Automatic annotation (TrEMBL):
<dbReference type="InterPro" id="IPR014743">
    <property type="entry name" value="Cl-channel_core"/>
</dbReference>
<feature type="transmembrane region" description="Helical">
    <location>
        <begin position="596"/>
        <end position="621"/>
    </location>
</feature>
<dbReference type="GO" id="GO:0005769">
    <property type="term" value="C:early endosome"/>
</dbReference>
<feature type="transmembrane region" description="Helical">
    <location>
        <begin position="549"/>
        <end position="568"/>
    </location>
</feature>
<feature type="transmembrane region" description="Helical">
    <location>
        <begin position="447"/>
        <end position="464"/>
    </location>
</feature>
<dbReference type="GO" id="GO:0005886">
    <property type="term" value="C:plasma membrane"/>
</dbReference>
<comment type="similarity">
    <text>Belongs to the chloride channel (TC 2.A.49) family.</text>
</comment>
<dbReference type="Pfam" id="PF00571">
    <property type="entry name" value="CBS"/>
</dbReference>
<dbReference type="GO" id="GO:0015297">
    <property type="term" value="F:antiporter activity"/>
</dbReference>
<dbReference type="GO" id="GO:0010008">
    <property type="term" value="C:endosome membrane"/>
</dbReference>
<keyword id="KW-0050">Antiport</keyword>
<keyword id="KW-0067">ATP-binding</keyword>
<feature type="transmembrane region" description="Helical">
    <location>
        <begin position="522"/>
        <end position="542"/>
    </location>
</feature>
<feature type="domain" description="CBS">
    <location>
        <begin position="681"/>
        <end position="745"/>
    </location>
</feature>
<feature type="region of interest" description="Disordered">
    <location>
        <begin position="76"/>
        <end position="97"/>
    </location>
</feature>
<dbReference type="GO" id="GO:0008021">
    <property type="term" value="C:synaptic vesicle"/>
</dbReference>
<keyword id="KW-0812">Transmembrane</keyword>
Length: 841
């Protein structure tokens, strides 16, 4: 039934959407449509984007075709002259009555017009509603159209959940392969290999004859210095191999697959187009290389890249539904929901994923998108739970459950963790951006493979001797979150035995105990791991492999929290008669839970780096399943944000957006300068006058000469050059397509033909060539502000309406134009930054 309704929907909408009117993409200097695919190198709006150091041109990427409404080829000949050989139709071509393919579409590295796209969608809805009353077929089509959004969300959730499950299973297997192999099946990881073994012991539950280390396979023994060296070298070999494969695949097949992807996703959701960034090749390569990068042991995570993977799935599936394929604003609603799906499968937190999309990445998030995001996140979480990649019936490896309550006195240490998280976040952002600038400005950026291999070798050499840096990030966090019980044999639970039976605890829980030699050893290793993680993550994030930041940040905070938690536990044990402990911490009671401190520290550090607040608290709550720990998490997260904001209001993703020069107007950033629109608009006082079109006083040749002599993305239409009274705005791309199409389809269009932007063509001499009517491509309601409009209001208009440009008038006369790029340059000048870094660095 679904297929029937979908096919019915496509059949009835294919002709309507061909003629829908929309905004195009600016920035072409050629005079024919054939030149639209080859932008001029110095064009302001069509520069090649430098994403993670790779200059790319994906204008022909197949994931997002520039022309959404059929091919232009059915109208075209070999040249313009081919349309003048007498075989073309003789009637006048009017884009309003006979819409042209390509008009209203977007080219690469351009911003969409949200207002025009929403208008197109309203017109489409209105037409569907009117026709639904006329026949049963039209009513079914209306029902299919309403249901298609939910069907798309279902498919996005299913596909993303399945891919995330495969990534988890493959990454776990390859991570264990660095240390050994399963004899009964090489495809089993360490844990699954020993599941069916009856020869495991309680103290060495991970040791079984079916699993052998590389030293056992090569030398026959697992003891001694030589066996240690063999395991060390094999660990380095596999890490370097995985890292080399990851960076090589990214470089050869999908350069857009590197990095986290969240800065670019935020930019795309704000209305910018990066063609190929959400394509199927990017999806395939990112999925494979994410497994390899995580398995190599580098200090990175898969959570951020999973958001990119989910958005790729959504973008590809959007092309199955004409409603989303032909409307960029509607597609971005789906991508916002996909971002929620990515976090849902990364942390097993559907609600947290929806809030993450709302708080962190989405630019436009209507209530309808909220509902569909929740549904898609639910489907994805259910799919991942059905796969059960970790074999623990949980969606993440580090799911924990705490039962001990916390006391008001512990808010002090929790706030200390928040301060640490804020300081770490601010320090990390500044250090990482500084390192990325070095990478961009030196020869280091020209050798991405060498950089990845060197960092991998350094990471492996320093990580292997320490068991807490050798294990994967999720395993480390799981170890640190763990609450010690009677059955735990972890080094972190190496307490001295308690001889007094009144202090031994009850059931499977243990009271506070003195630290033993094993715990002291673990604490020293954790301290070294903390320093290592803090330093190595700075140079790892931003390399040319898929790299997320959630897990490394949480690992740093979890280590710091565990160290503080153990310190508080020992303080309470030895000084339970102090005022701060008296009355609630009696001898032998389970007063302090070090695992809770690790969890609060993880949230604090992640919040300091990303500046997440509400969504982060909900994600951590969903990880623990305990409502009673919301207050500690809120206190630490809010403190972390306040402290980090004192050193700079940008999170790591906003900092990377600014580093790469993406055209992104940050909604959270306030504009406090008292400048006016006339101070920002172009042309400036020393610039040439504004290039305009008159509504009925220019010929085709004059229009083409104006287009070819400028690189503007559009032109205001005025009544006359003398009056400068505004009529509307026409975009460069629409203008070129319409003129080129008229030369091919309308007989007699020559350079002397008059171009008319009015409803009725003026009277012409009998021997004059036929006029070219282009009223249909003019935006008759462009947004305008007066020259004395404060820039803070103008910036808010651009942010909230998603404008590409705004015209400036004085008493109805056109003075100039303000583009999104002009605003970004002006804001950069105010902040003492290089304005030329905008679009693109």
């Amino acid at each position: 039934m679904f297929q029937f309704l979908t096919s019915l929907y496509r059949k009835y909408t294919s002709d309507w959407d061909i003629g829908s009117e929309g905004m195009d993409n600016p920035g072409y200097r050629t005079g024919s449509f054939d030149g639209l695919h080859n932008a001029c190198d110095d064009d302001d709006d069509d520069e090649m984007v430098d994403i993670a150091g790779a200059t790319l041109d994906f204008s022909t990427a197949d994931d997002d075709p520039p022309l959404s409404s059929g091919g232009y080829e059915k109208y075209s000949g070999s040249s313009r002259a081919a349309g003048m050989n007498g075989s073309a139709p003789t009637r006048l071509v009017d884009p309003l009555e006979d819409p042209l393919p390509g008009v209203g579409t977007y080219e690469d590295f351009n911003t969409i017009d949200w207002v025009r796209e929403k208008s197109k969608d309203r017109d489409r809805h209105r037409e569907i509603a009117n026709k639904s009353r006329q026949s049963t077929w039209a009513l079914l089509r209306s029902i299919s159209d309403a249901f298609s959004g939910w069907l798309l969300m279902l498919l996005v959730g299913l596909k993303t959940g399945a891919i995330a499950g495969g990534i988890d299973i493959a990454a776990h297997w390859l991570t264990d392969m660095k240390e050994g192999v399963c004899l009964i099946g090489f495809w089993f990881n360490h844990e699954h290999c020993c599941w069916t073994s009856n020869e495991t012991t309680f103290q060495e539950r991970d040791r079984c004859p079916q699993w052998q280390s590389w030293a056992e396979l090569i030398t026959g023994t697992s003891e001694g210095a030589f066996a240690y060296i063999v395991n060390y070298l094999m660990y380095l070999f596999w890490a370097l191999l995985f890292a080399f494969l990851a960076v090589s695949l990214v470089r050869a097949f999908a350069p857009y697959a590197c990095g986290s992807g969240i800065p670019e996703i935020k930019t795309i959701l704000s209305g910018f187009i990066i063609r190929g960034y959400l394509g199927k090749w990017t999806l395939i390569i990112k999925t494979i290389t994410l497994v390899l990068a995580v398995s190599s042991g580098l200090s990175l995570g898969k959570e951020g890249p999973l958001v990119h993977v989910a958005c790729c799935c959504a973008n590809i599936l959007c092309h199955r539904f004409a409603k989303y394929r032909k409307n960029e604003a509607k597609r971005r609603e789906v991508l916002s929901a996909a971002a929620a799906v990515g976090v849902s499968v990364a942390f097993g937190a559907p609600i947290g994923g929806v809030l993450f999309s709302l708080e962190e990445v989405s630019y436009y998030f209507p209530l309808k998108t909220l509902w569909r995001s929740f549904f898609a996140a639910l489907v994805a979480a259910f799919t991942l739970r059905s796969i059960n990649p970790f074999g623990n019936s949980r969606l993440v490896l580090f799911y924990v459950e705490f039962h001990a309550p916390w006391h008001l006195v512990e808010l002090g240490p929790f706030i200390l963790l928040g301060i640490f998280g804020g300081l770490w976040g601010a320090m990390f952002i500044k250090a990482n951006i500084y390192w990325c600038k070095i990478r961009k400005s030196t020869c280091l950026g020209r050798y991405p493979v060498t950089e990845v291999l060197v960092v991998t070798a350094l990471t492996g050499l320093l990580a292997y001797p320490n068991s807490y840096t050798r294990m994967s990030g999720p395993e480390l966090i799981s170890e640190l979150f763990n609450d010690c019980s009677l059955l735990d044999s972890s080094q972190l639970c190496g307490y001295s035995p308690v001889t007094n039976t009144t202090e031994a605890g009850v059931g499977n829980t243990l009271g506070d105990r003195p630290a033993g030699p094993g715990l002291y050893t673990a604490l020293w290793q954790l301290a070294l791991a903390l320093v290592f993680k803090m330093l190595i993550t700075v140079i790892t994030f931003g390399m040319k492999v898929p790299s997320g930041l959630f897990i490394p940040s949480m690992a740093v905070g979890a280590i710091a929290g565990r160290l503080l938690g153990v310190g508080m536990e020992q303080l309470a044990y030895y000084h339970h008669d102090w005022v701060i402990f008296k009355g609630w911490c009696s001898p032998g009671a389970d007063c302090i839970t070090p695992g809770l401190y690790a969890m609060v520290g993880a949230a604090a550090c992640l919040g300091g780096v990303t500046r997440m607040t509400v969504s982060l608290v909900v994600i951590m709550f969903e990880l623990t399943g305990g409502l009673e720990y919301i207050v500690p998490l809120m206190a630490a997260t809010m403190t972390s944000k306040w402290v980090a904001d004192a050193f700079g209001r940008e999170g790591i993703y906003e900092a990377h957006i600014r580093l790469n020069g993406y055209p992104f107007l940050e909604p959270k950033e306030e504009f406090e300068h008292n400048s006016l629109a006339v101070d920002v608009m172009r042309p400036r006082r020393a610039d040439p006058s504004l290039a305009v079109l008159t509504q009925d006083g220019m010929t085709v040749g004059e229009v083409e000469a104006l287009v070819e002599s400028t690189d503007y993305s559009g032109f205001p239409v005025v009544v006359s050059a003398e009056s400068q009274r505004l009529v509307g705005f026409v975009l460069r791309r629409d203008l070129l397509i319409s003129i080129d199409n008229a030369r091919k389809r309308q007989e007699g269009v020559v350079s002397a033909s008059q171009v008319v932007f009015t409803d009725h063509a003026p009277s012409l001499p009998a021997d004059a060539p036929p006029p070219l009517r282009l009223r249909g491509i003019v935006d008759l309601s462009p947004f305008t502000v007066t020259d004395h409009t404060p820039m803070d209001i103008t910036v808010d208009i651009f942010r909230k309406l998603g404008l590409r440009q705004c015209l400036v008038t004085h008493n109805g006369r056109l003075l100039g134009i303000i583009t999104k790029k002009d605003i970004l340059k002006h804001m950069a000048q105010i902040a003492n930054r290089d304005p030329d870094s905008i679009l693109f660095n």
